[in-house]
Amino acid sequence: MARRQVRVVGAMLQNEQGRYLITQRPPTASLPLLWEFPGGRVEEGEEDAEALAREIQEETGVEVDVLGQAMHTHHEYPNYDIDFRVFHCRLSRPTDEIQHLRVHDHRWVTLEEMSAYRFPDADAKTLAKLLDLDN
Q1: Model confidence at 111, in pLDDT bands (50, 70, 90)?
Q2: Are the CB atoms for 117 and 109 separated by under 8 Å?
Q3: Higher model confidence: residue 101 or residue 132?
Q4: pLDDT tops 50 at residue 134
Q5: Please, what's the b/e burial string for 20-57 (b: 16 or more CB within 10 A of its CB; e: otherwise)?
Q6: In the chain, pLDDT over 90 holds for what percent of residues?
Q7: CA-based diameter of the chain, in Å?
Q8: Are 8 and 122 in contact (CB under 8 A)?
């Protein structure tokens, strides 16, 4: 039987102070209370940028401008594979406040501060690439 393939998009959403948005998964979600780049699954027929803007709006109530792709990685979980693409983004309206509509919490952090948070494996792999690129 073929393994399930899940296409996921995430945002490197940077604010005017140069910090990145990370969100905490709800306690009832899979991989509960882990931190991640905001985003989610790409639905059938959606483009990556469209899915990312939709997911962020649904989770945090803010609108974003999706810019270029920052990176792409693949991660194998025990029961499925993740095709994970991360995009540079910015808030469409920088004064909008992050809401906790479908996230448990959020933080604006530097790349260096991200190591203090526990991420799912696919996000952690992306973070490792980002930190290596930054050196």
Answers
A1: confident
A2: yes
A3: 101
A4: no
A5: bbbbbbeeeeeeeebbbbbbbebeeebebbebbbbbbe
A6: 67
A7: 48
A8: yes
Q: Which helix (H) or strand (E) holds 14?
A: none
Give the residue among 89, 90, 67, 85 at the shortest CA–CA distance from 126. Answer: 85
Compute the chain's Rg from CA coordinates: 14
Residue of 21, 19, 1 lying closest to 107 (CA atoms): 21
The residue assigned the tokens 């194998």 is 76
Q: Is the pLDDT of residue 112 over 90?
A: no
Query: Taking CA 72 as the corner, what is the angle to CA 110 and CA 76, rounded to the nearest 5 degrees?
Result: 105
Q: What are the C-alpha distances in Å from 87 to residues 2, 18, 28, 116? A: 28, 16, 26, 22
Q: For position 131, what pLDDT does the model report?
A: 63
| pLDDT confidence band for 19 (50 / 70 / 90) | very high
- Retrieve residue 113's tokens: 């501060």
Three-state DSSP at 74 gives strand
What does the alpha-carbon distance between residue 18 and residue 134 come to, in Å, rounded to a whole number? 13
* Structural contact between residues 4 and 79, judged by C-beta atoms closer than 8 angstroms: yes
